[in-house]
Amino acid sequence: MTETFHIISDGSCDLPPKLAQEKNITIVPFYVSFDDEHYLKENVEIDIRDFYQQMVDKKGVYPKSSMPSIQDYEEAFLPFVKAGIPVICICITTKFSGSMQSALNARELLLETYPSAEITVIDATVNTVLQGQYVLEAAQLRDHGFSYSDAAARLEEIKSTGRIFFTVGNMEYLKHGGRIGKVASLAGSVLDIRPVITLKQGEIFPSGMDRGRKRTAWKALQLLLAYLRESPLGIECYSLAVGYGYDREEGLSFRNQALTVLQKEGYSIKELPVYQIGATIGVHTGPYPLGFGVIEKGIH
Questions:
Q1: Would the pTM of this model clear 0.90, i.e. be above it?
Q2: What pLDDT, in 10s, does the model give residues 200-259?
Q3: What is the pLDDT of residues 55-113, one digit of tens each?
Q4: How many CB atoms lie within 10 A of CB 218?
Q5: Exposed, middle or buried: residue 70 (CB in 10 Å: 0-12, 13-18, 19+)?
Q6: DSSP letter at 1?
Q7: CA–CA–CA angle 281, 287, 291 (5° rounding)
Q8: Are the C-beta atoms of 32 and 39 separated by less than 8 Å?
Q9: Closest CA to 206 of 215, 191, 214, 216
Q10: Residues facing residue 28 across a β-bridge
């Protein structure tokens, strides 16, 4: 352990386990259950593909997620606290989960035994693939020599630039989770109308509706383009990614379409990573979320 500080995130960040390991990032998993009794650790006891497959196979069954416990965070923090390595812990927006409170409680408990421990807990104000991009920016800061305090300060500066523009396969899961009004859900079930949604500053905002998958996906892309046009910064100053649920082929096709459109619009972009949205958000969106995450880079 020679790093200047260590990065920990809850499982909402949806970073592939292999990538998290490569970047030396510790993930504290969420739990997911299909029967309200047996909760399994995401990516440890149930992988994302299995989770989505069960959703697809068991229509009308709405799984639930549960946040990491105080003990889960204590166990994640402890090796670094003992080694005298500061920790930056990035948690899902507090508007969606109490995960950050678990982390703060674990911090307080550890400070009783290790009063010199340095643990900064950050409310990402975002979730899923965008939280993953934010966590990767933390790793970039660490790997480029930023100090613990400077990295934490820079992460606080950039988080308000984070946006998710996305759509879903239908409104049933949003309705079941209380994320959308019953009237809108009824309209969606009758007319095949689907929402386009923006997430910013920790909350969901409706950004229109349309019929059919292609049209709502196209609207999500238009929201991304509008955000980039309004920004005083160039596209090279942003981290962008595509997130998808069950259907990887659709995610890749959507990414390719987005790259083509962005390049035609004059943006110098050659790569656009694609990540699978995990169970923490999938329980609310259903198996077919699709969209973009964008956030300012920590270094540009």
A1: yes
A2: 888 888 888 888 899 999 999 999 999 999 999 999 999 999 999 999 999 999 999 999
A3: 999 888 899 999 999 999 999 999 999 999 999 999 999 888 999 999 999 999 999 99
A4: 16
A5: middle
A6: -
A7: 65
A8: yes
A9: 216
A10: 10
Q: Is residue 153 over pLDDT 70? A: yes
Phi-psi region of 117 (alpha: psi -120 to 50; beta: other; left: phi over 0): beta
SS3 at position 72: helix
- Helix spans in the chain (H): 17-22, 48-57, 70-82, 99-113, 128-143, 148-158, 172-176, 182-191, 213-230, 248-264, 279-285
Give me 292's structure tokens.
Answer: 């973009």
Nearest-angstrom CA–CA distance, 245 and 275: 9
DSSP string of 91-117, one letter each residue: E--TTT-SHHHHHHHHHHHHHHH-TT-
Distance CA 22, CA 224 (A): 29
Nearest C-alpha neighbor of 114 from the set 134, 87, 90, 138: 87
- Where does the pLDDT of residue 25 fall: very low under 50, low under 70, confident under 90, or very high at 90 and above? very high
pLDDT at 162 over 90: yes
Query: Mapped to the 3 state alphabet, what secondary structure does 211-233 carry?
Result: ECHHHHHHHHHHHHHHHHHHCCC
* Amino acid at the residue 76: A
Closest CA to 114 of 106, 126, 123, 122: 106
